[in-house]
Amino acid sequence: MTTSYQFPEGFMWGTATASYQIEGATAEDGRQPSVWDTFSATPGRTRDGKTGAIACDHYHLYETDVKWMADLGIKYYRFSIAWPRIIPDGRGMVNEAGVDFYKRLVDCLHNHGITPYATLFHWDSPQALENRYGSWRSREMAKDYADYVTATVSRLGDRITNWMTINEIPCFTHMGYAVKEIPFHAPGTTVRTPKEVWQTSHHAILAHGMGCQAIRAASPGPCQVALVDNFSVTVPVSESSENIVAAQRAFHTCGSNGGIIFPVLTGAYSPAMLEQLGADAPDIQDGDLEVIHQPLDWLGLNIYSGVYVRAGEGDRGYEFLDFRENYPRLHMPWLWMLPEALYWAARHVSETLNKPDLPLIITENGCAAPDTVGNQGEIIDLERILFLRQYLKAVHRAVDEGYPVRGYFLWSLLDNFEWSWGYDRRFGILYTDYATQQRIPKASFRWYQECIRQNRVV
Length: 458
Hints:
Largest sheet: 8 strands, parallel, barrel
Structural class: alpha/beta
CATH superfamily: Glycosidases
Radius of gyration: 21 Å
Distance between the termini: 17 Å
Number of strands: 15
Strand order of the largest sheet: 1-2-3-4-7-9-12-13
Number of helices: 16
Helix content: 25-40%
CATH architecture: Alpha-Beta Barrel
């Protein structure tokens, strides 16, 4: 039997972006610096010393970008709101001019029949709070975050009903703080012990829990609340029963899974993770886990790659397999081609985390490719089409087998500031000419447009 890779009616097709990566206008209308403004302006921290000061100038060009979304055919758009625009000092006075930008953006989306999905925190925390108490190193950060959420949702909740608390906790904690080295991400803080790093992610999941409570309390009407996580996906190298069990066991201790997605969804750190951490486990105060373990309406998954696992000897019962240099990967050191990671991400939520009824949305998936404009003014990014086609087939398999995957948001709508990589790596389906701010649709844009039109993998 041949499959047409047809998705069910109502499957959500979208794209995703993040505030610091596209907005620019970092000093306009009352916005104060974020930790990424400071980090990227520090010599040696980003490729070629690039910053997000202008980025894609989306702050001024959002109407053009929304027209591109309408042309693409998406009905859903995931973006993030910049805390330093809403509360420039991190706590205290609300900057209504910053709020007004998001009102304009969301009204424009609605006018084009596009439903907004808003992430309340995507790494650009206020520099003022880093100066005040070291941002995520302090429990105060969770409370200040919850106050920011209240301010934002009470002002935008009449226009936005789909909220995500926090994006990818491992990236701004375990990659923003490091022992005896300068971390790859902002705030770029060197700490003395692994315990201090784990404390930052504990404060972040605490902020997520308090954020869930704040959204529901502040929303003027019914709303949906989610977390977006990029947990490490363990994929059985072959789907034998032994390798599947090994992948499920390994999931607990792979990356920071046992200390982030486990407490959020189950109310407890994974015992296997705590045993592995020993004295490096974070301090958990009474009542923290109850706050962290809030009911979610759905879970967002940002999945790009994974790690192969097989059954192994010894106490653990599993073994991680390394990729060799000639294994296929896209234009990032970590971007190994592993489409099944999307299928196993959904399956791990249902089976390993025992949340079979929790709806899932792929909130990010995509790849970087070395895109250039050809002689005809075209960008023929065939490797991106190959990547997306294979990954979407894995999403289809998950849906076909009954896992509750409701939608797919491609990363990203347009080339943008790729954090420490500056503008050197392009993830967009729209090419950004940074000198002119022109957007040029790549071959992948037209391909994805056709997937949306036919509601299937083409």
